[in-house]
Design goal:
Layout lengths: L7 E5 L5 H11 L5 H13 L10 E6 L2 E15 L2 E13 L7 H8 L6 E4 L7 H6 L3 E10 L13 E4 L10 H12 L3 E6 L4 E11 L3 E9 L2 H6 L1 H9 L5 E6 L8 E13 L13 H4 L3
Length: 290
């Protein structure tokens, strides 16, 4: 007799699923241990998504048992004077026997037409797949900079200090919230203040090839700000053992000393708002430390 077809269900992840989801992800991504995924789900549990969007993502289950998952990091972002919703698709895994049902997870996740979706760390073999899903590449590579070698002349008088110290000059309170929230995630959150204004910067500590310490630019209000203040920011980071900074780029960055690597760490989006370079706030780089 033929075996009955499995009962497949796709639904949002809820609190009681956390243990099963972390175990599933640990099997699917053996380079990261169970504690990594427990910490990731804990951070998602503290993160507040926009109304109507999932807190953790989606679960695929068969006969009541989890067989696949797709994590989402959903955030409210400010674009000009408007608030918009953004979702970072992260950590997609389905057990081998159920791979034919994997599109259910993606179609459920991409159901909101007014949301901008990001895929910021796709594996090379998935690039054709996500392009077929309607994603477009907005970042072709990275620029690996040595900002401490930049001249300080263009940023004379600028002071760099940690985010928990309120600036004595004009600053944006929404940006202050971004800095403070990312600091709790283990990022390096800084103000760079001139005599007129304070500019926000967030960096994620990383190790290239698990050996060379560096920092990845996660957030600034404009990519040109990092070029302008590269000298003082570079000295601050270099003194703390992070001489190299990874910056999203589509070409070599004029005014920075370093090397452009096309095809390294490309990033994709789908939706109404094309992401700008220099804004990876509330993505898996910041929240999970991937």
């Amino acid at each position: 007799m033929l075996a009955p077809a499995p009962s497949i269900r796709c639904r949002q992840i809820i609190e009681s699923d956390i243990a099963a989801v972390t175990a599933l992800l640990a099997r699917g991504f053996p380079s990261r241990d169970l504690r990594f995924w427990q910490r990731a789900l804990e951070r998602l549990g503290r993160h507040v998504p926009p109304p109507g969007l999932p807190k953790y993502g989606y679960l695929l289950e068969s006969g009541g048992a989890p067989v696949g998952t797709l994590l989402l990091i959903c955030s409210t972002m400010r674009t000009g004077d408007q608030l918009t919703a953004r979702c970072n698709l992260s950590s997609w895994y389905v057990e081998p026997d159920f791979r034919s049902y994997a599109p259910l997870l993606v179609s459920r996740a991409l159901a909101h037409k007014d949301v901008t979706y990001l895929n910021v760390s796709p594996a090379p073999h998935t690039w054709p797949i996500i392009e077929a899903q309607g994603f477009s590449r907005y970042c072709d590579g990275v620029f690996v900079a040595l900002p401490a070698l930049n001249s300080l002349s263009g940023s004379a008088g600028a002071k760099v200090f940690e985010a928990h110290t309120p600036p004595s000059v004009a600053f944006d309170q929404c940006e202050q919230e971004i800095l403070l929230q990312h600091a709790t995630l283990g990022c390096i959150s800084l103000w760079c203040a001139t005599s007129e204004r304070a500019y926000p910067f967030v960096f994620r500590p990383r190790r290239v090839k698990k050996v060379f310490p560096c920092a990845q630019l996660i957030y600034c209000r404009d990519a040109a700000d990092f070029v302008r203040f590269a000298g003082p920011l570079g000295w601050y980071l270099a003194r703390r053992g992070r001489p190299f900074v990874i910056v999203d780029a589509n070409a070599p960055i004029s005014g920075l000393i370093g090397s452009y690597r096309r095809g390294s760490m490309p990033k994709y989006f789908r939706g109404p708002q094309r992401p700008r370079l220099g804004d990876l706030a509330y993505t898996e780089y910041a929240v999970m430390g991937v």
